[in-house]
Amino acid sequence: MVPHFRTLGIAAATCATLAVGSAVAQAQGAVQGQGEVNVYTDRQPFLIDPLLEAFTAETGTKVNVVYAKSGIEERLKAEGRNSPADVVMTVDVGRLVNMKDEGLTQAVSSDTLTANIPAEFRGSEGHWFGQTFRARPLAVHKERVDASKLTSYLDLANPEWKGRICIRPGDNDYNLGLIASVIAHEGEAKAKEWLQGVKANLARKPQGNDRAQAKAVFEGECDIAIINTYYVGAMMDNPEQRPWAEAVKLVFPDQDSHGAHINVSGAVVTKHAPNRAEAVKLLEFLTSNKAQEMYAKGNTEYPVKPGVERAELVKSWGEPKFDAASLEAVAKHKSAALRLVNEVAFNDGP
Amino acid sequence: MRRGTARLDLWTIGSLLMTAVILMPVVAVIALALFPTENIWPHLIDTVLPGYIRTTVLLMAGVCAGTFVIGTGTAWLVTTCNFPGRKVFEWALLIPLAMPAYVIAYIYTDLLEFAGPVQAMLRDIFGWTTPHDYWFPDIRTLGGATSMMILVLYPYVYLLSRAAFLEQSVAVLEAARTLGCTPWQSFMRVGLPLARPSIVVGLTLALMEALNDFGTVDYFAVRTLTAGIFNVWLHMRNLGGGAQVAVVLLIFVIAIILVERAARRRKSYHNTGTRNTPLVRIRLRGWHAWGAAVACALPFALGFLIPATQLAFYAVANFEASWNAGFATYARNSLVLSGSAALAAVSLGLFLAYAARLGRGPVLTACLRMVSLGYAVPGAVLAVGILYPFGMFDNALDAWMRSTFGISTGLLLSGTMFILLYAYVVRFLALSYGTMEAGLTRVKPTLDDAARTLGRSPIGVLRHVHIPILRGSLLTAAILVFVDSMKELPATLLLRPFNFDTLATHVYQFAKDEQIERAALGALFIVLVGLIPTILLSRAITQGKETPTT
Predict the structure, then answer these.
(1) Rounded distance, CA B213 to CA B294, Å?
(2) With a cut of 0.90, is the ipTM above it?
(3) Which CATH number applies to B1-35+318-512?
């Protein structure tokens, strides 16, 4: 037993040395190498990797990435002025605005970015820049729903839809954005009443992601789902899921007023970015025609740059009116949106 | 040997220091709780908090009952009885441990939801068409989440109670039989009470794991306190408020730890027998034998065989889309990290558990009770608690080096493998400490006294008396920490270095989007890589017991 124990000890020491050694090497490689840029993101590798590879191919600048989930802001704060991160890529205007408010970003002025991104898709002081936007329309069953009765998100609260709506949990970012936009347009009291109405119309307890809602419509559990547009693209590309997407038709609400709710994906340059020049170059690349087309085709999102060709599927939805004007207002009401979700116990279902 | 006196020696100072290092992230979370951006409690108490607490309590009660029955029952059967397939079940019952809970949650949802094969078959047979024609249990519920957790967490109880049953003196069981106890009676009256410290440790571990879970409950839209932490932290952007909810969670854990201590304090059981001969198992016959086989086959089938088969189908069907040249690298990263974490946690756990046994004063004892806290905190929250102290240390060191020597050290530890290793040890120390402590309680204190009288130092006693006796517990602890590290996800995601993937993070990129088909291949890799050492070590535990060592 005793020699055995010694072997374990040696193995432990070896493992530890290996671990620390490779870690130090990696850390140094990431920070000090020339012509590099370091990215923290909570977006998905299958989408972001091709974009970053294209950037490296075009500029020769190497990109190092940490794909995280929650807590990127906390990591930046804890790392402070020595943080290696140059760029954070994320989704949701609320997160982008918040990073600026928490002092984690720096202002960037770049003629390329100003030219490529319409003003409503970037922060007014140059702290955040949108890359794509995604709409959150209704996905209704092609036959079982008379779409002419659904012209506004507010119609979802009408009693005639009782037991027919499917949606993911209310405390999801996308739903909080939508609820925040209703608060922005209608005020909190009316938004709460509306949310209660929607809750009463649910077919089941909110669950699953957006894809699961389209599936539920296809299967007949409900008739109306609320989903982000790129999920339709993802389902169309998957033979098994294609019927789910084909069972629904997208209805873009509020076309006579402010337009359908949208949210953005975007990026910031961090306050202490050690490779600021490369970071700006990366942001500029992400709004170039090439990158914007990759976004448009790779994830069927809407490119922010005007004139960039959209995916065929996206084109088939026509030219709906989008609610770009209230993006920053949506960011402001996100916390209030969560309170409403809690107050009406939205996640308990009908 | 003097007990209960405060003495400043290697054991006291060393274990106090280590406890401080281990508790640092939990202390950081508590410190964060002091600075909320706004007071969230009136809102939470009025709205969701009662529901969160009710759900959390029910989940814990369900997991406790389920893992107890399955874990101790199967452990007793394979240890003391003979029936068809016993040798296989001995290690097979451990395997569900290698399955991440959220993965089996995805798989059972696919199988059992409206569109899944099970309901489709029922509709075919009975001619139903819509969901309104019949009732079928909804898996995305509290009951579903509890079942998923029982299926992957019962191995904690199984492993620990089996180690205890194996370490029980054969003489005690034989005496029970001689006195006319049926197998059932000797289980209830001798086996269970003697193994109680270990069983309670196993249950505590299962409960803490259930508390820190976010993936499963989130997928099932079951709102526990964990959901509350994340909502306040991420959606209200109120880290302090989220930390306060985490403190409520910690209170739950402290309650569990206190109950555990109380359960153990009332009685202490030590082996008094000196014989270490192999136990003669009772040969079960007829329906008893088949009943035992089915009882052991069910948890294995539900916790591993069925989900793994489904994963294998997905993996084959999506092989081209999911095969990745990086798998070798991810597997190496996972193995190096998990192996190092297992060794570090086992050494540290042994040191601390032995220090607790030496009994150097109430302060130390109280501190040592808290080293398990990190295990119950959701990984992402613990990771935030790790980020801040390391960031402060790195930045302070950097500032000092700059001002003194004009050199910048940058972030020395943050964003390295070291911080990951530290996170794993903090998260999973409870597994090794609990296992080791339970193992040590079964060793009679007179054994220590005898060895000390014969001139051994405490370290000598540990080395020559306890480590050989505790071989089973040491290996058990190593398996638990290793397998849990293989699955570790939330802390790895946030703390990892650039361009660094483990098998778990690789699987997550697909699982995040609920695309289990594409995650399947990687998930199978995690299970396989976790499986091999599990089986080897499980055999080592049994062999160590069955072939008496000289």
Answers:
(1) 29
(2) no
(3) 1.10.3720.10
